Hints:
Blueprint: H1 3-26, H2 42-65, H3 73-77, H4 90-110, H5 112-126, H6 132-153, H7 166-173
Helix pairs in contact: 1-2, 4-5, 5-6
Amino acid sequence: xxxxxxxxxxxxxxxxxxxxxxxxxxxxxxxxxxxxxxxxxxxxxxxxxxxxxxxxxxxxxxxxxxxxxxxxxxxxxxxxxxxxxxxxxxxxxxxxxxxxxxxxxxxxxxxxxxxxxxxxxxxxxxxxxxxxxxxxxxxxxxxxxxxxxxxxxxxxxxxxxxxxxxxxxxxxxxxxx
Length: 177
């Protein structure tokens, strides 16, 4: 086994050790179990379990097949300017930062779901996408999926918003799931 193979597994070994350690630590969370409801340790355990499985798989793959050359973010950032002749849009970046800040301020007022719906549409318009039907359809579908995921599957309490905006959250809750 070459040193390159072992060296390429180091990040995954660290990830696996972290996943196992945190999984054991999460098991010590004290809470009062309620019949028919998931405890606060379920989703972290699922995430850490999946992280451990992926790390173990990647360790095995790298040790059996050998280290493969991969290009990560650091490699892409080290490219010379001549290789990357893409346009720079600092005003769009600044607009995105402002939009995220406005979203964070409006979530308690409009409610998470309505603010997310408007944020997604505004972000797509900011990104210079101009297919209006696609923008509003994607925003609506994503908002419904996020609502079902958080409210029905993960049982996460989301900000409802102040009246009359809280009715949008109530409308999404009516969707069966």
